[in-house]
Amino acid sequence: MISDCWVVLKIQLIVLEIFPFFQVILKMANVTNNATLPLKKIPLFSIDASAIEECNRHVQEDPTVWLGNTACFKNDLQDVCLKREVVAQLQHVYSHKVEAECKPVTNQRVTGRCWIFAALNAIRIPFCKSLGLEEFEFSQAYIFFWDKLERCNYFLNIMVDCCRSGEPVDGRLMSFLLHDPINDGGQWDMFFNLVNKYGLMPKKCFPESQSSENSGTMNSVLRHKLREYTKEIRTLLEDKAAPDDEVRALLRRQMLEVYRILAVTIGVPPSAFTWQYYDKTKAYKEIGPISPKEFYEQHVKPVFDVEQKVCLVNDPRPSNPYGRLYSVDCLGNMAGGRMTIYNNQPIETLMKVSGDSIRDGEAVWFGSEVDKGFVRKLGIQDTEAFDYRRLLGVDVNKGLNKAERLFYGDSQMTHAMTFTACHFQPSNEVDDGAPEKEADALPVKWRVENSWGEERGEKGYHVLSRPWFEQFVFEVVVDRKYVPQDVLDVFTTPVTVLPAWDPLGALARNRITRLD
Q: Which residues does the entry assign to the active site, renumbered to this chain (predicted)?
């Protein structure tokens, strides 16, 4: 009993001795915690009761708010704001048009393959003319397969470079690239890489699959595997200075797995095919056996040579002067392939060369931001299509210019389509009052072949106004013969590489650009 009391007393004495020490420790911890806690910042404006009361009073005093709410209760905001006079003004009548638009209107379904469809739609026009065809489609799935394979390999090679250079996995570059390692978007130079290496083939010889028409699940699997492969690459290069042969062996094993995924989801493209068809006179024709590369070289290239096409962009940001060549870091689809490059020019240059191409009967591939000023059901693209001010009391898409929209993240390329016609007004007058010559005029509206089926617009074709072109078209691809020599000379100048997240690379990062 006495010994137990002694033990308790001893413990109490020890606690009393060390208590001041613990007090100091706790006080230091408290100071540290208080130092790291953020101070409560007093906002300049708060949503309090008086603010809400003011807002309610503001809308209650305006009778158009009630009327607008009633109209929008069961109707889409854009349908309510649509201006009838714009619909009546933009008719599908054009002064210049390509000789024959091919059928059927294509449909990219639930994918972001607009850049592939737009390019193949442009190519099939002279191809159909040369073979006397009324209906034809190139195989979009064929290009899609090789793009997926090449793009996965391109991404993994970038990951090797990033890991070897010590790029932190949680740094901005790696975080940006790993956020979406694979998607469906693309650029003209990427299309060039694929056609130049793999050629083309008819759709009937390699038709669509479920995954080529609805790529979401396939892309999800590929994204997971690419992130997993990045971890393997990083582990290999962190643990030791792995030689190239060892890294190459790892990439080979990874790409074998990617190929198998694509073989299951899209199918393995044939190395040779025989194409049987009837021309417009109903005469039987046959081409083959022939490889896709031979098919392009012998039957497509003579009427549409991808090597002769050049890409011009309009980026009016002050940081990117006109007359310069630009690229975007880590933007591409083929290791060792052509860089994705942009020749930056004023918008008038893009309109001029596009108009000259249409006037000569050649369709034009172009990239734009599709959803602003876009009447989806009617296929009308015009900056004045909607009158938001009368309904909402504010202007929409008018407070920022084109450069500012790029700078503040309000605009970027989201969709690629094809110009097949345009309309000139030779009677327009220039500033000095003299009549404007047609050769010097710029088109006032354009006919657009889209790849969303026949449901929108005039059986799949849109009409696009000149103001919309000026504000939301960023890129065109035309034959170099329509481009002035001083603009072509820019392609021989040094390339300025923009960051990987720059909006100029947006079209190649889109997952799905079909708007349902």
A: 114, 415, 450
Give yes or no: 415 in active site: yes
Query: Which residue has tokens 């042969």?
Result: 245
Q: Which of 102, 114, 128, 422 is catalytic?
A: 114
Q: Which helix (H) or strand (E) holds 326?
A: strand 324-328
Strands 96-97 vs 473-479: parallel, antiparallel or unpaired: unpaired
What is the per-residue DSSP string for 172-228? HHHHHHHHSS--S---HHHHHHHHHHH---BGGGS---HHHHB-HHHHHHHHHHHHH
Which backbone phi and psi does 401 adopt, to 5 degrees?
Answer: -85, 180
The Cα 384–Cα 372 span in angstroms is 10
Please report, rounded to a whole number, the percentage of residues in the chain having pLDDT higher than 70: 88
Residue 289, preceding peptide bond in cis (omega within 30° of 0) = yes
Token pair 């409560």 in the structure block, residue: 40
CATH class name, domain 88-509? alpha beta
Q: Is 128 a catalytic residue?
A: no
pTM of the model: 0.89
The one catalytic residue in 311, 450, 462, 510 is 450
Q: How does pLDDT run across 90-133, given as a tens digit for each residue?
A: 999 999 999 889 999 999 999 999 999 999 999 999 999 999 99
User: 36 by DSSP, 3-state: which?
Assistant: helix
d(CA 3, CA 105): 99
* pLDDT for residue 38: 64
Backbone angles phi, psi at 93, to 5 degrees: -130, 130
Domains of the chain, residue spans:
88-509
pLDDT of 199 > 50? The answer is yes
Q: Kindly name the residue from 96, 415, 423, 462 that is annotated as catalytic.
A: 415
Residue 3 pLDDT greater than 60, yes or no: no
* CB distance 314 to 474 below 8 Å: yes
pLDDT tens digits, 256-284? 999 999 999 999 999 999 999 999 899 99
Q: Cα(159)–Cα(157) distance, rounded to whole angstroms?
A: 5
The number of helices, as runs of H, and strands, as runs of E, in the chain is 18, 14
Distance CA 354, CA 333 (A): 26
Residue 331 has pLDDT above 60, yes or no: yes
